[in-house]
Structures are given as structure tokens and as C-alpha cells.
Amino acid sequence: SAQELPEIEFGNIPQEDIAMMSFEADTSAEAYVLYDGIRHSIYDDGSAYKLSSYYHRRVKLLKPESFDRADVVINYTRREEEVRDLEAMIILPTGEKIKLRNRDFNRDDLSDDRITIRFSFPQVTEGAILEYRYRRISEGLSQVPIYFFQEQIPVRMARYEAEMKSLFSYIAVCN
Asked: How far apart, in whole angstroms, are the C-alpha atoms of residue 27 and residue 143?
């Protein structure tokens, strides 16, 4: 049976995460991924099946070398995808929360087909927590996006969920 994981509520940061100023198991770590989750589900919008992918990420900045993580880029294709429900906030070491507004998200049309959404968190400092989430709706069901459970920095919790319709056939391809 699958292990039940707690729901991670956006903006609800445990006090011990806010107070943390270093990662005990690896004091050289520049940052620490507190949570990285993705949830895929297939649904029928009445005209076609679509893949809805919900992304949620929370990162603790521990050293100045991690500050470039406060500049986030989301790429997608105009024809097959759209990004919805984008939210982002920074939680300062004092516990103050600063939520980004619509004007803080910059959309760039890179070409006729590629779009980029960029945003930067304000008041980046050691001990801050960056949190953002969004939904990506994809028309093509040929490939579920690749997900990596580990990164260059330590990861406390990585979560991957997929709810797929039984009328589809699936195969796993490993390189």
C-alpha cells in the first residue's frame, strides 16, 4: 500500500522551517528543497482529453549562493499548453509573507510557439523561503513530463502523483 503523505498547504509554513538557518545533515548546502510536488490527472473537457499537471515548490535559501533560485522561469508551448492559477510568495525569516501580484509575472513570447513566464521574488535574504504553485494544462497526452526526485541540493520531500484513466494504456520507458 502507498504511504499516505500529508497535504502541503500553500503558504502554511511550519515555524521550525521559518526558523531554520542551516541544514544539519549538510551544512555546505546553499539551499534546501522543503517540498517539490507534481500531480497529474487526465480529464475530458467535452471536446478532448487533457492532462492537468499541478506543480508546487517550496525552497529554503540558506546561503547567498542560492539567491539565483529566486528568479523563476516557466516555459511552455502556445499550441498545446497553458499555465493557470500561478501563485508565488516569499516568506522572510521574520515570518512576514510577501505575495507576488499579477504584475510581477512577466510573459514573453519567445517565438510563434514558445512562451516563457518569468518572475523574481523580492527581498531575497538568507533564511527566506520561496514558494510557488501553478497548473499546466496540456492538450497532448503522448508523454507525461519527466520528474526528477533529487537535485543538486538536498530535498526533504518529493511527491509525484498520477491519476490516469483506465481506458488508456501506459508504458514506462527508462533510459
From this structure: 38
